[in-house]
Batch of 2 targets.
Target 1
Amino acid sequence: MSRHKLSDSDINDFIDNVTTKKQRTNGLLTVDDVASIGVNASQLADAISRIIEFPTRDEIIRLKNTNIEKRILYLLQSPEVALGLELKDNYDQGKLDVFERILHYNWKEGLDTINDSKMIKFFQECEYYLPDLPPIEDEELKTQVESNEGLDNLSHLGEQVYESIISTYLYQRFPRENIKEISRYTSNYKVLSRWGRLYDLLRDERTPPREVFLAYIGAIVSKFPTDENAIRDIEKVIYVLVEPILMQFEPEVTIKGQASSELSNQIYDLEIVNAYETTHASPLYVVQIYVAGTILIGTGVGRSPIEAENLAATRALLNPKHLEKAKKFAEEHAKKAAFSPEIEHSTFSAQPQPQPQPQAGYTQPQPQAGYTQPQPQSQYNGQSSYQASYQAPYQGSYQAPPPPQPQPQQQCNQQYSYNNNQYSYGQNFPTPQPSAASNPAALPVSHTYQDDPYNSALVHQPQAQSASSVYPQEFINQEYQAQLQREQDDVIQVPDVTDESTVEMSAKARLNEHLNKSRLPVAEYKTDKLNNSDVQVTCSIGAIPIVKATFANKKKAGQICAQYILDHWGMIYDVWLKKKERNGF
């Protein structure tokens, strides 16, 4: 094989060619030229979006046989239109995969953050709607996410979970809207990337922030078998994160002052959830209303929990079709619960039963003299009648504990268990000292075992089961304000907390979960500024002030109130019943 020898002229031509190309490339790397790349790509994506909406060639032929303008017939003969129709036909036949890739990219990335009003509003508000992310329990996955390495699988899993949660949520919240258009915002890569940066998840700038955020979700839900609690935890976070977007798609409505009460009269199995308190200087409240704890029928954001609740109820009432479906679901849910073979209804005698012994190291609280445990009213010849509903949490080999039995009158020295969490006196705060004047009246109490995978939690409720008693709807007026002022004298003052590290920032959320499961109104918090450094936060349940705490930070003061209620739930619940009866709620 002969080798061709390069002459000096060939070498000079090669050098000149390389030099010319390099100079031309450098000349194109100006700010304007690079910016034009993005403009041209955006125009290409928009052009493809329009081309695929063109009528087909057959439809064009049929169009020619009708009476149309001569100018349209002339334009149909142009080679550019012919090219567009050819591209349309090829796309319909599945021959242009590149169109799919460009359209998918445009759908995820193509929203204009400069001119799109909804995106502008989102970027202005998203930092105030930032709930705490659930922790990643698997240490290996936690390290993997924190290092931003090898996130492909976790990111893919997280994206699928996120899209599933969003699709279901949008369908429930916007049953009459085009949720495909809404999801273009909620699933946009710029939005997901913004959350990744706000949560400070990025460690390697070469990794897209959205991938780290989605990988975090994937790490939360990656347990096998699937942990439903983990999915519910991430659902609550996502519902709040997308609120700055979704509130822009809600139609403007005039809030009905009695909407919540009107709604509760139509559907009895309502669950009102105070989902989030924003971090604005003047916080906003996100309230959601569910039917049977499953179907979302209304969401509202307001300057107070009551305003947000009435807005959510107003929107629910303005959607009668969706509301009717929710009613039917509630009725079916109630029938299934009433006729379920797992539920037993029986009457027990007043014979005392042995109480479970507290764990080692537990010290029973000793209230002051004069404080007694509330006793059931006598109904049958001096014997108390208890009605209990008991649902076994497992089938098969699991041995469920016996239903609760009524106890003779005794000192209040029992341990309370709620939501599978044991709240005993003296966890983070000193034991309360109730006076004889605050002793609750004896009321009939029904003991209901909630369905819990590990432990049946005993929940105390008044026997009345009407909608107004389970979810009382109080509205602020002059008489109500005067009543609140009178109640201030009976509000329990939480002892000062000197160690700030002992304040649990999840206490408010845990308290609301506990109250929801106990079918009690969610807690509300009112802030009063005492001086330049301290604020006083009063926590109310069902508009009844219960405890108040003083602290430098109002958010932590609210958490202190919530933690105190959880730690002393037995006493707090008795005091709440006393006030509720006295006020006629």
Note: The radius of gyration is 32 Å.
Target 2
Amino acid sequence: SSTVTDESGLYSFNGDVNGMFKVRALAEMKQSGTQSYHFQVKNIATGKPGSTFALQSSQAYISGSCTSGNCTLNLTALHSNRSNGPFAILDGVKYALDSVLALDSSIQLPELHLRWSSSNSSGSYFTRSTTTCGSVANCIAIKGASSDSDEFDWHVITHEFTHYLEANLARSDSIGGPHTENDLLDPRVAYGEGLANAIGAIFLDDPVYIDTANGGGFSFDMENGTHTLKGYYSESSVQSIIWDLYDSNNEGLDNLTLGLMPIWSAMRSLKTTDEITYLHPFVSALKVGRPGDTGSINAILSMENVATDANGESDVSADVDSAYTALGVTGHNCAGSTMEYAYNPILENVSGSGSSVYSGTHKGSQLCGAVAPGLNKLFGSQFIRVTPDYSGVMQITVTDTDTNDFDDPDVFVYQAGDLKGSAATDGGETLNVIVDAGKVYIVEIRTFDNCMAYILQTGSSYYCTSKAGEAEYTATIDLP
């Protein structure tokens, strides 16, 4: 016989019970119908997909008909054997789920596995990788090792749950990777992480993100943060903007209290955007939905040094200097005056037909401005928006003009978020992609830096030189 608990964990069975029995409580939430979802906490130690965690009573004997009060059996999930972990995870998910169900009366959420064990120390993250998830399309890995467990860190849980929602109901173009406060991030990464922090906090109605650890941990306040680096490339700025759009505690130039619905709608509208998903398309969508609040939205943007639209952003090369100065970093070779980044506009526009409709010289770096080592930094990628007049083959040719061997450019082509082609060999690249007339394609030229890759692999910067990490290349685009 089976049943489901209510929101307080109470359950009941109807009927006569005779003999020995046990009660098992599964770490699972499931509903079908107009609003549907299916979430299970799986034991990451038992492979893929893994077994669903369950709490089981000892054997009990009952004879005759049960009436109220004489057939009660309570199950308690204890910390001593870590059986409380899976149910704590579902508690965090339930906070987020209640908000989502209130936003959409007909929402259909795909199956999600939350993979945890008391020995898992490999990190907490959302992924669609079959290596981690197995046969299910979406899973969240959650740390459980005693040195740094996350099952009671509900901001961590709701952050990762927001990644799941964004990936399935909206769109995420983020390339992932390490990130932290005061990091100059790829704008897709800054938006994705800031969005997950902010909406995860909105689900909990708590702007103070806390990630505990044995003897340490960290926290930050989205309402009263003290981050020094501000801009569309800062996850701290993104999360502060979204929180200020939502909350009722208005300060400074913040006089808005939008609640979650307009933010949710703007996020979901990016599912079909021709742009990359980052802060400015989100803000544009928000203004379309709330045209009367445009001035107030712009005021909140200004508090984080973000322009009113993408075209208003200036060349941010000098922010490398200001970021390093604020952080007390010296001896770098990443001054804006020498790097010559033309990062305005954020996406260059190309259209037409024929040979060499675009030709440009660029620099790229995964090192300059980086705080957390990673191959996902602001100056690592150049984006070109291409709209061909005719269908046929688009050819992108990128020539590495630098004399060092530490970095090289790679090429990726997207259409509404879908990867249409890529080339990532050593040195220069030539990539042919079939395109349709009138559609918008995003060409990304991304610097792969061997120095940064070495730091990520070994934790040492011995391999690096003063010139390493500054890619120089020319790019040419031919359209049909």
Note: The chain has three domains: 1-169, 179-313, 333-479.
